[in-house]
Design a protein that fits this description.
The protein has 295 residues and is an alpha+beta fold. The protein has 7 helices and 16 strands. Helix content is 25%, strand content 30%. A hairpin with a 5-residue loop joins strand 9 and strand 10.
Length: 295
C-alpha cells in the first residue's frame, strides 16, 4: 500500500494491462484493478478515452439537500433509518430519489479537487452531537444520449454557477422563497423557523442555478413527500445547492468485472458499477473473493 502516490497512467502491452505508472516509478502486477471512487471518475474517463476502453453513456445526479425540523421526518425515522424513496414526477416523468438521509444530522460542505464546493450531510452516533434538524438529498437522475458525452462536466458547470453566486460556498434558500421565485436574504433567513446547520451557507436563489426541469422535479417531489411527512413542504424548509453525484463512466464489464482491455478490472462508483457506499463496499468484498480464485 502506497500513500500519496497518484497513479498517472495504466501500462498496457499487447492489448493487455500489466501495471500502473506513477510520477517516479512503474508498478507491475498479475491483476490490475481500478477502484478510484466517484471523485476519480474524471481521471478514469480520460484513461478510457485514451485506450478505447468500452463504456456506455453516463449518468449524473443533480439536486439539492433538504433540511427541516426532525419532528417532520419522525414518522419515517421512527420505523426506518436512512429511508430510500423514489418519485416519478408528474410533469416530466423523471426519477427523483432520496439519498443520504440523516436524522438529527447536520449539513456539510464537500470540496472537489478543483475546489468546487458542493453540499452533503451526515449524522453523529453520539447523542450530544445530534441536532434538531434532519437533512437528506433529493437527486434527479439524468441520462444523456448522443452526441453529449460529458455528464460530469455538465454537473460541475451547474455547481460552478452556484459557487459563482455565493463567493465559492454553498447556497441556501427557504422553500417558501423557492416557490415564490425570490432570493432568500440573510435577514429573512434569520427569522426562519428552521435554522441552517451549515453556518457559512450563503442565502441566495437556486432558480438562477438549476435548470427549470430539475427545479420542477424537486418541487413536485417535495410536495409529494409532504403527503408522507406533513410539514416537509413548509415555507421554512431549507434547500441547499448544489448536490451532485458523478457517475460519468459506466463501463462495459464481464461478470468478473474485466474491462474490454484484457487483465484490466474495474469496480465501484468510479466505474459506474455502484452508486453508494454500501453497494461499493459489497462490490469490493465480492471482487476480493474473486481474486482468491482464478479470474
Amino acid at each position: 500500500i502506497l500513500f500519496n502516490t497518484p497513479v498517472e497512467d495504466i501500462i498496457i502491452e499487447n492489448e493487455k494491462a500489466i501495471g500502473v505508472k506513477t510520477k517516479d516509478n512503474n508498478y507491475y502486477g498479475d491483476v490490475i484493478v481500478i477502484g478510484v471512487g466517484r471523485e476519480g471518475c474524471s481521471w478514469f474517463e480520460m484513461i478510457c478515452d485514451k485506450y478505447g476502453i468500452e463504456k456506455e453513456s453516463g449518468v449524473v445526479d443533480i439536486g439539492v439537500r433538504v433540511e427541516c425540523d426532525s419532528n417532520i421526518t419522525d414518522p419515517i425515522d421512527s420505523v426506518c433509518y436512512e429511508c430510500k424513496l423514489v418519485n416519478y414526477t408528474k410533469t416530466f416523468d423523471d426519477k427523483v430519489r432520496t439519498f443520504c438521509w440523516n436524522p438529527h444530522g447536520e449539513v456539510t460542505e464537500e470540496r472537489y479537487d478543483d475546489n468546487l464546493a458542493l453540499v452533503n450531510g451526515h449524522s453523529y452516533k453520539c447523542d450530544s452531537l445530534k441536532t434538531n434538524n434532519t437533512n437528506l438529498a433529493l437527486l434527479v437522475s439524468k441520462n444523456f444520449t448522443v452526441p453529449f458525452k460529458t455528464p460530469v462536466e455538465y454537473g460541475k458547470h451547474i455547481a460552478r454557477l452556484a459557487n459563482m453566486l455565493s463567493d465559492g460556498k454553498v447556497l441556501v434558500q427557504t422553500y417558501g422563497d423557492f416557490k415564490r421565485g425570490r432570493r432568500t436574504t440573510k435577514e429573512r433567513l434569520s427569522r426562519n423557523n428552521t435554522q441552517p446547520t451549515l453556518k457559512d451557507a450563503v442565502p441566495g436563489d437556486l432558480s438562477l442555478v438549476l435548470p427549470y426541469r430539475i427545479m420542477m422535479n424537486i418541487k413536485e417531489t417535495i410536495e409529494a413527500l409532504d403527503q408522507l411527512m406533513e410539514g416537509f413542504a413548509g415555507d421554512g424548509t431549507l434547500l441547499y445547492g448544489v448536490e451532485a453525484k458523478f457517475y460519468s463512466n459506466k463501463l462495459t464489464l464481464t461478470n468478473n468485472f474485466e474491462t474490454s482491455v484484457k487483465n484490466l478490472y474495474a469496480m465501484g462508483d468510479g466505474a459506474g458499477v455502484t452508486r453508494g457506499l454500501i453497494q461499493a463496499s459489497m462490490n469490493g468484498v465480492i471482487f476480493a473473493r474473486r481474486l482468491k480464485k482464478p479470474l
